[in-house]
Amino acid sequence: MKRKTTRHALLYAGVVLTCAILVFPIYWLVVTALSEPSLLRQLPPSFWPSEPRWGVFGQIMAEKPILLWLGNSALAAIGAVSLSMVVSVLAGYSLSRFRVRGGQSLGLFILTAKMLPATLLVIPLFGIFRNLELIGSLWSIILAHATLIIPFTTWMLKGYFDTIPRELEHAAMVDGCSPLGAMVRVILPVSAPGLAATALYGFVLSWSDYAYARTFLTNAQGNWTANLGITTMKGEYISNWSDISAASILVALPILAIYLVLERYLVGGLTAGAEK
Amino acid sequence: MAGIRIDSVTKSYGGLTVLKAFSLDIADGEFVVLVGPSGCGKSTMLKILAGLEEASSGTIAIGERDVTDLAPGDRDIAMVFQNYALYPHLTVARNMGFGLKMRGTDAAEIDRRVNEAAKILGIGHLLERRPRALSGGQRQRVALGRAIVREPQAFLMDEPLSNLDAKLRVHTRAEISALHKRLRVTTIYVTHDQTEAMTMADRIVIMKDGVIQQIASPDVMFREPANLFVAGFIGSPGMNFLKTKAQAVGGGVTAKLFGHDVKLPIANAAALAGREIVVGLRPEHIAAGAGQVSFTVTPRLIESLGSEQYVYVDLPEEHRRDAGSGGEDESRRTSLIARLINPEPRPPEATLTLSFDPARLHVFDAASGEAIR
Lengths: 276, 373
What we know:
The complex is a heterodimer.
Chain A (H helix, E strand, L loop, with lengths): L1 H33 L21 H8 L2 H32 L5 H13 L6 H10 L6 H25 L3 H9 L4 H12 L1 H16 L3 H7 L8 H6 L9 H27 L9
Helix pairs in contact in A: 1-12, 2-12, 3-6, 3-9, 4-6, 6-9, 6-10, 7-8, 9-12
Chain B lengths: L3 E10 L2 E11 L4 E5 L6 H9 L6 E6 L2 E2 L10 E4 L11 H11 L4 H15 L14 H14 L4 E5 L7 H18 L2 E6 L2 H7 L2 E6 L2 E6 L1 H6 L4 H6 L6 E10 L2 E6 L2 E4 L12 E6 L4 E3 L4 E5 L3 E4 L3 E7 L15 H5 E7 L10 E5 L5 E4 L5 E2 L1
Parallel strand pairs in B: 3-8, 3-9, 6-7, 7-8
Antiparallel strand pairs in B: 1-2, 1-4, 4-5, 9-10, 11-12, 11-14, 12-13, 14-21, 15-20, 16-20, 17-18, 18-19, 21-22
Helix pairs in contact in B: 2-3, 2-4, 3-4
């Protein structure tokens, strides 16, 4: 009995410690944003500002084109995710359902693209986009992000489609659907949790990109994404970390909101009842 | 409704042929059951019939229409799947109406037909539920309902009862039979369960390794099995097989069974003399007590089911077939089972006299396994 209690206590201590390690940077971001810049370097540090600067968010939005940056980030992420989903749904479904010669090798080849670091592709992509006259355009990062998102989402979706019984398509085809119709009318609605998780993954990947935006969009201020915009707030000699933290919180909020909306899909379980 | 003609359909995957020259004429309104062990090609044939798999060669006609190259949706058939395959994101009503919607039927007509089918199957109260909120039996009814509302030329059923528990299976089996009598839609039903085949079919097609072994009504298949495989597959418990040699005596032919010279019920006896044969005897054709051919045994095991007893007896060495000759397990090769109806209670170790009527014997060629009549 005593041994069991000790084990539980250790387990809970472990959980609390892990949570603390994960949550602390977010907490510290909030503390930094709400503190007077002059008080940030005091020792011992203050764990909660005595007079929180709640007005900092409004002030930042007035001083910097945060909304424009957020809009550009959203456009880029929505574009990249839309493009990626169209490609990876079709590719993942094909890999899951059709046995063709070399299909497995092709699937692995797609996955190896994911293994390449994103920075490796920056220079070749820059060359391609310059030839296509896309440098400075949001299209450049939409396409660049799609090259990162598609390999992984294709495999995620293939795995998800593998779990859906083939009889569902067979039933739809006997009911009068074409193979594509069966996918659109039956398989995709049933795959909603998988699609949501995959889209969210792509969105986060695109939203958090800095390297591509920095390379392709630096000279087009009107197309700056939020991450690129925030880095311009860092001065050469003086950086206002409070303002930068406040801006970072504003940039993180949309992702948080999307997580909350999609949470019920991410839990999954929609296919229960399809079969025995 | 329409008849179905399957002509020399073959299916190969690379070098592996899973269906060999399958031909079958099914009459309008007939209930045909494809039965056989796992891997015999019965489900593959059904999928080819539905258009879900392509035949390597051969043709299929439904009614007067050649449907060999038509898409599943254009064949005007409905299918019930083993795992039901209900659309989990749609309500029962929309599941049932999906096929009609795909065919552009107007909403009022869909409603009417869904309600009618729901009434037939007693699932009217479930129409607004999703599949996940249904029990196994209810899902099975919805799957049947989805097939019925389409009013198709034929129903294809792929082991639709195998996911139900034993009691519900018997109940649903009777319901499907009743439904067929009411609607008279041509039905092709696939199962590995010989009881389902015997109780439901107008005709049974028994298959092994992609080849049809026999096509016959349940009674004919039981009384006149075409070969050892059919004889062993149909009937429960399966037929007893005894290896022996045929001997010509006068105008007839006899075989030594349990020490007796037993006259075999064969019309063409002349060609048989001296050949190795396998004699088949159904467990229910063995009676307790003396009879036309009697023999005394010490049972190895007696299983009592109340109204009947299964008596297991070691088969004499000379009657045992070679190992692996029939594909069944070792105990069937070395035992004889007698099924005694309304038996008297008896201790298992006591000796027992059993008997049989030689007219009930089945005779098979030992080499080819084909029946000899």
